[in-house]
Amino acid sequence: MEQHPDRMKTPAFLADLGKPTLRGIKKCPKCGTFNGTRGLSCKNKSCGAVFRDGARKQQPSIDAVRIVTGSSSQVYSVRLRDRGPDYRGFVELGATESIQTVDGTIITHITGRCLVPTCFKVSSKGGTQNRCQHIKLAVECHMEATPHTLKSSVLNSLQVATETKQAIWTLATESSGPLVQRITKTIMVVKCKASPKHSLGFLHVSFHERTRTKGVIEHKFYCSCQAFKASKSGTSKEETSRLCIHFYACVCAFASDEKLGQEFSYFINFYSVGLHPNSERQLLAIYPQGYSAQAAGNANSKAKKRKKDEVTAVNQPIDESQVIMSFQDWLASVTERINQTMHYQFDGKPEPLVFHVPQAFFDALQQRISLGNKKKRLPNSTTGFVRKDALPLGTFSKYTWQITNILQIKQIFDTPEMPLEITRSFIENRNGTYVPFKCPKVQVERIAEAYSRVEKQQTIRPLELKTFLRVGNMSPDQKQPTPFIIEWIPDILPRSKIGEMRIKFEYGHHRNGHIEYREQQPSLGPSLATINIH
After folding, report:
1. pTM (2 d.p.)
2. N or C, which end of the chain is more exposed by having fewer CB within 10 Å?
C-alpha cells in the first residue's frame, strides 16, 4: 500500500504526537496570514484587518481624511494600519508634476511627505512604486473632515484661567482654517503651535466611551501633545488641572453645537462646569459613581464664585494716569498700517496714509530719519500753503522727506513688536481673493535628530505670490529713483501740539518671481485710507 506523502516527511521522533491542530493561531479572513488569537490586528502590514477582543472581524475606520486648512496646503489625516483604528498621523501632499519619458509617455507624479514618526521610507520622489503606504492613502483619499464652529460666547463662559481662553482664541484666529474638525466618530483634529513634532500645526485628540465589566461606563480621552496621559472618568482634581488647551478647544466646539453637545455631554459637564445654564443638573446626573452629589455641588459653587471674581475684576475702575502709549507702540501701529496696505489684491498705488501725531512723537521719528548722519537731516522740500476750503483754516507749512534707500526705510519703521515687511507673501483663493501667507519658522535641528530622521525634506510652499515696496531704481533703465515720501504739517491742532503726517509709497507684485503689472483700480475714498491716532 502506498504511504501518504505527509507521513513520509514527518521525522520519527515526532510520529507519536498525534493529529496537528491550529490551536493558538487563526487565519486572517482578509489576506490568509496566520496570526495569534490574541493579536489585535493582522501582522501583515499591507492588509489592514483589525481584530477586536480576539474576534476575527475588521473594525470599520476611515483610512484617510483631508484636513480643512483654509489655504492651498493639502494635509491629510491617515490611519496607521499596523497599529489599529485609533492611531493616526499626518501626510502633506504637494504639487502634481508631469514628467515625459524618452518614448513620449507622460507620467503624473504627486510630491508629498509623510510625517508619521514610525515611517522612514523616503517617498517624495522616485515614482509611485517608492511611495509609503500613508502617502498612497492620501493620494487616493476622497473624504474631507467636518469643521466645527467655535462660539466666542461659549469660550467666554468656559471655567478656566483667562490665559487658557486667550491661548485657545489665538490658536483659532492666528491662522486660517477651523480650530476643531472631526475625522472619525471618536477622533478630532485640532490646530496647535507648530513645533518639530507637529510641524504642520495640527494634532489628534481622541474621545472614547467603553462599557467595562458590571456595566461600568469608562470615558477616555487622549491628546497627542502629550501634556497629559490618557485620562479616565473619575479623574482627580490634580489630573483635571493638567488638561491641555487642545482638549478645552474640543469641549468649546462640542458645546457650540447642539448635536455634538448631546453626544459628548459627559466631557462638557465633567470638565467644564458652567458652559450651560442647566449645568448643575447635568453635572449631578452624569458624574460617575463614587463622586457624590455634594462634591459636584461644591465644584459648581466654586466655579460660580470664580466666575463672579472674574466679572468683578473686569469692572474695576481704570486709572487714567496709568494709560500711557509709548513712541514705539505708536510707531508699531504705523508700521502695521504700511504692512496691511501692501496687499496683493490691490493695484500697488494706494491713497496716502494720514495720521494725526503728537509733535514729540514726530520729533523721535525725525531722529530715526536722520540716523547715520552727523547732522539732522533736513527735508527735501518745504512748502507754504493756505487752507481755505477745509478745517482747520489758516496758513501752514509742509515739510517733505523723500527716501530712496529701502534699508533706511526699514531702519526708520522697524520696531521689536512690528518689523516692516518690505515683501509680503500671499495665497490665492478659489474665488480670486488673496490672503497673507506666513511661512513657518525653521527650527534648528540637533545633529542627532538630523541623523535619526531619514526622510528630511523641504517644506512644500504654495504658489509664489508676493508684494514688495517699490523704492529706488527698480530697473536698469529707470532714470529717477522711486521715492518713499514722508510729509509733516505741524500744529494742525496748535493747543494740543498735534500735527498731520502723510505717508506716500508704491508697491509691486511678483507672481512666481516675475513682475506682474496691474491697472490702477478706482479709489475707495480718503475716508477709508485715513487713520487718526492721538
Report:
1. 0.42
2. N
